[in-house]
Amino acid sequence: MSFYRLFRDPPIEYRLLPFWFWNSDMDAEEIVYQIKEMAEKGIGGFFLCARQGLKTPYLSDEWFHYVAITIETAQKYGLEVWLYDDYPYPSGMSGGEVTLEHPDARHRQLLHHSVIVTGPQTFSYDLPWARVLSARAVPLDEADRALWSDAIDLEQAIGSVPNESVFQSTGLTTYTNKRFFTAKLQKRLVWDVPAGRWMIIIFLEKELEDFKYYGHYVDPCHREAMQTFVRTTHEQYARRFGQYFGQTIKGMFTDEVGFIGRIPWSARLPSFFREQTGYDLLENLSALLYRRGEQTAQIRYDFFQSMHLLLGAAYYEPVGDWCEQQHLQFVTEVPSMRMTTQRYSHVPGGDSAHEKLGRSLKWILDRNAYSLRADPKIASSLARQFGRERAMIECFHSVGWSMTLQDAKWMLDRLAALGINLFIFHAFFYSISGLRKHDAPPSQFLQNPYWQHFRALADYAARLGYVMCQGRADIQIAMVHPVTTFWTHMGNPFHSFQYCGDDDAEERTLERLKKDWAYLCKQLLHHQVDYDHLDPELLAEATIEDGQLVLGQACYRVLILPPMSNLEAAAWSQVKAFLHAGGTVISVGLLPYERIDRNQDIAAECLEEFGLTVSPSSDYWQELHVDGQERSWIKGTHSSYFIPCPGGAQHAYAIEPLLTLLQQSIQPVVTLEGVVGDTASLLMQQRILPDESRLLFITHQEGMDKTVRLHLAECPARQHVERLDLASGNATTMVVEKGDDGWSVVLPFAPYESYLLRFSSREAGREVEGEQLISWELAVSVQEAWKLTAQQENVVRFGAFHVALDMEQTGMQMRWHHGESAQAWPLVEAKPFINQCTDIAEQQSFPLQFHQTFGLPVDSSLVYPLRCWYQTTFRVETLPALCKLMMDEDAIGGIYMLYLNGKHIEADNFVADGRYGYRQLACEIQQFLKSGINHLVVAVEVQRGEDGVRDPLYLSGPFGVSLDAVGMATLVQAPEAEVPHSGVIQGYPYYAGTLCFTREIFIETLPQEKTFALTLQGWDNQIHDCMEVLVNGSSLGVGCWSPYRWEGDTNMLRTGNNTVEIRITNTLNAMLEGTYFDALQHQIVPIHGEAER
Q1: CA-CA distances (angstroms) from residue 530 to 369, 476, 671?
Q2: C-alpha atoms less than 13 angstroms from C-alpha of 916 in its C-beta half-sphere
Q3: Would you give the DSSP letter of residue 78?
Q4: What InterPro entries does the database record attribute to this sequence (predicted)?
Q5: Are 855 and 166 in contact, with CB atoms under 8 Å apart?
């Protein structure tokens, strides 16, 4: 099948894959229905994820029964099934079974305590209850320098003491009923300090406590525990569904496996460290936080590298091998020690793209710069270097319910330009009932009003995925990742290389190194110079062919060495070989000077290769200054170049000589010139197809119009340029201009617009529609009033309630169910009762109960059950013909009764209501309404902290809604006219669905052109929802993102009056959260007080 046909309708394997959250009572009929919906909307498959809210027992026979139904249904619809390896996350727990079987495998943290004391004295110091790994007292000289060789071991000076006394009124005989115990052990140091000043340094190993879901986590370096993880999860799937592996079931996803603490640690590390290095880690722990001379860098490097190797050997390698043997792809989204943590991944990945439209490209690149997970170029570089076809990003979690398809398209464009070709959407929720809707939303699934238009985004993402898998990326530059430099300055790779040491000066050193590296990377992207990150460990494994550095599918002509204090010797050997073979190496600012390989010091060789006689370190580390001097470079042997950077690379504007050297080393095929505006908001990737034609993808990531001239290095007579439309799948020929400075193409960019261009020979078989015809412009003014109607019923959201505790059970006698006396009660948001208690603890007392287990301290807790009354008020100005009370099935926890104006609303009157794509309950209550003030009351018997009114309640019906300044709603006549605008629409502040704006326009004479283009004059450019335009009842199509353009055949028009209708489909945000996104301020804003404009 031709490239063009596959581009127009990409196969399943290139389509997006969402996490499908199984988070409720699973139902076979609902599973089949949701898979059918995915298939109809162009989804390629899904990751089957057990998620919080799940009521079906995980990994039980019932669980696997539903998995079997899922596989059979997916097979029927031609969808792929991908497995997620745990419940919920991070991976490694098998739903908690692993640590039940291996209690010794619980995750532990490395803690550090230090204090300076002066002797002589007897010094006492309390420590947490944890295993002591090292305790030393180091004498300090007159200049407060540590005399490490004279340190004293203090481990024997540490013992255990209780921290709490316990009294209990009980006895073992009839002769006494009082007992004394102690509890809550801790460690204590007691030391007779000799004369002088001493620095006490103590390291402890403490179990991780109070971690999400299970209260703890597993140590992924515990080999036996990880074997149990595979046995209890992976092998269960293999026994039941192995016949589908490599066919319908494509792979296994592992998530966020790593180390939790401030300093990465495993209880298995000390023994492994000795095996790897030949010396004792515990004797040298102080070198992690204090510089102990020249050996400090070596110890720190050995520490982090040993953690890296141990994690790979215990977890990633065996799990990757298991997947390989089972014909499954091992998909990883994990924090990493270094890039090569994902060495064993078939689909390397990351976690990025969690922003709303409007963030600048600079802001986003800054935010992601240091993270091995959040920078998409880490995953795409690894995929190329390991020869993997796909590079994955898990995207969109926690963007919130205001996320639109425009937001998604904007982020997908950025990911694609950075080399990503597999998009995993977080997430499709099986249910959003109750608290489930707050699980790092949104759900982009059938619950959202825009689901009816989702096929447009699915096809767009599929075409992006397809083209980014074709041929090879034309990236000839590798930026060596300074990971080992960050390590030796105590940058924690699991937390974006945040400093985890104990020295302010060293932290500033680390920050300069990080900022300079990120500066170079970001500036290359802002100048449309593409590159790959390259881990030194992989650099050492590369081959050299025809003067190029070759790794997998990657071929590099230029290596960039950012400022680095060290480099592994094996990597340096390959740098030298590359130089001697004709490659270009550019070092910026700082050459390696620390020794991290015990048997080899590369510092002198580095200086020699780059033509230097003295180390540039003193120049680089000097205080920041700007002297206005133009920066150049020093040429060393072969094609090596060193760019001096006094005060750091960013301060020395190192990007300018770097760009010059790159342009000399690699002749660009295309360059961009700003005609209107600059090019800093553009990202670009080039790909070379097997027929040697070239793809060029350019995305504009910001919200202003721009015009760019694309200069072509050459344009042979038999070559042409065409635009491939990612939205429609069509191709059109572009106009190539010949000027004094060569061939070029003018590209006008609307806000957030992207171009996919193909450069190919005229002989190539093509299916191109030709140049676009000139259309007649039909201008429609937006600023006049439009007739307004709603396709769905309107809603009122009640998200705040006055609450009272009925401890005497007298609420009914006091007529609380009428709601008239509740205004003095504290006000709470709809959330679980225990969280409401936290919010009003200063206003409200709560009944407590006390209980004591033999020999342990007394515990206190709230007395359950508690009877609580919740009340909210609204007005009715115009009684609606119909009105329903609506709520999620799980909106109220506990036994409850509902009252409206004192009238009991019978539970039996509620029926299932699925208008928003998930199960809700609704009851007709129009007969209970009255003009004026109305009171809605909920009486709840709270039996657990998670009970209470924990989710909003709603009224729905054919009415309008007016809000006063404090958010009280009034039911009014639905407004009949409005001007389309962003923010809150008068009369529909909480509406979720499609609003229709209609008006008449007059056309005196029909145009001669065959087509017309409709433009909306005065349009609010902050509207980023899905919009369909109809003319005389015929649709011009749905615009889901910028540029919003509509064209139609002229025969749709008529002389005289013509009807224009705009249908705007929004999100669930206003209804679920009671907020809207203020695009100008880039913040979420509460709706109340904003409805009256």
Answers
A1: 15, 8, 12
A2: 30
A3: T
A4: Galactose-bd-like_sf, Ulvan_degrading_GH
A5: yes
Q: What is the mean pLDDT of residues 75-100?
A: 98
Collect all residues with Cβ–Cβ distance below 8 Å to 101 and sequence separation of at least 6. 225, 228, 232
Exposure letters 116-135 (e unless 16+ CB within 10 A, then b):
eeebeeebebebeebebbbb
- The rounded distance, in Å, linking the Cα atoms of 230 and 223 is 11
List beta partners, residue 551.
Answer: 554
Answer whether residue 769 shows pLDDT above 60.
no
Q: Please give the pLDDT value at position 1093.
A: 31
> pLDDT averaged over the chain?
95
pLDDT reading at 704 higher than 70: yes
pLDDT at 98 over 50: yes
**Residue whose C-alpha is closest to residue 1041's, from 707, 752, 726:** 752
Per-residue pLDDT at 1089 exceeds 50: no
Distance between CA atoms of 93 and 225, rounded to whole angstroms?
9
Residue 797 corresponds to which tokens in the numbers above? Answer: 């959201």
Does 720 have pLDDT greater than 90? Answer: no
**Burial class of 51 by CB neighbour count within 10 A (0 to 12, 13 to 18, 19+):** buried
User: Cβ of 1022: how many Cβ atoms within 10 Å?
Assistant: 15
Of 17-26, 169-178, 327-336, 879-888, the least confident: 169-178
Q: Is the dihedral of CA 336, 337, 338, 342 positive or negative?
A: negative
* 686 close to 755: Cβ distance less than 8 angstroms: no
Lowest mean pLDDT among 512-521, 577-586, 821-830: 821-830
Helix (H) or strand (E) holding 492: strand 491-492
Asked if 289 contacts 490 with a C-beta cutoff of 8 angstroms, the reply is yes
What mean pLDDT comes out for the span 796-803? 98
Decide if 658 contacts 643 (C-beta within 8 A).
yes
Q: How confident is the model at residue 629 (pLDDT cuts 50, 70, 90)?
A: low
Q: How many CB atoms lie within 10 A of CB 318?
A: 17
As a three-state string, the secondary structure of 580-598 is HCCCEEEEECCCCCCCCEC
pLDDT value of residue 713: 85
Half-sphere exposure of 733 (CA within 13 A, CB side): 15
Closest CA to 593 of 617, 619, 621, 571: 617
What is the model's pLDDT at position 625? 57
Handedness of CA 811, 815, 819, 824 (dihedral sign): negative
Query: What pLDDT does residue 741 have?
Result: 82
Q: How far is residue 724 from each of residues 450, 696, 834, measured CA to CA in Å?
A: 25, 10, 55
What is the rounded CA–CA span in Å between residue 878 and residue 971? 6
pLDDT of 209 strictly over 50: yes
Phi, psi of 715 (to 5 degrees): -140, 85
Residues 6+ positions from 453 with CB-CB distance below 8 Å: 405, 1026, 1038, 1040, 1065
Beta carbons within 8 Å of 487's beta carbon, 6+ residues apart: 300, 301, 303, 304, 305, 493
Query: Are 430 and 21 contacting, i.e. CB atoms less than 8 angstroms apart?
Result: yes
All domains of the chain in start order, with CATH: 10-103+218-262+328-471 (3.20.20.80), 108-207 (no CATH), 477-665 (3.40.50), 670-770 (2.60.40.1180), 786-790+973-1086 (2.60.120), 794-957 (2.60.120.260)
| Model confidence at 765: pLDDT above 70 | no
Distance (Å) of CA 409 to CA 180, 321, 453, 462: 66, 35, 13, 12
Unique residue bearing structure tokens 């590359």? 578
What pLDDT sits at residue 525? 99
DSSP assignment letter at 234: I
- pLDDT value of position 775: 92
Q: What percentage of the chain reaches a pLDDT higher than 70?
A: 97
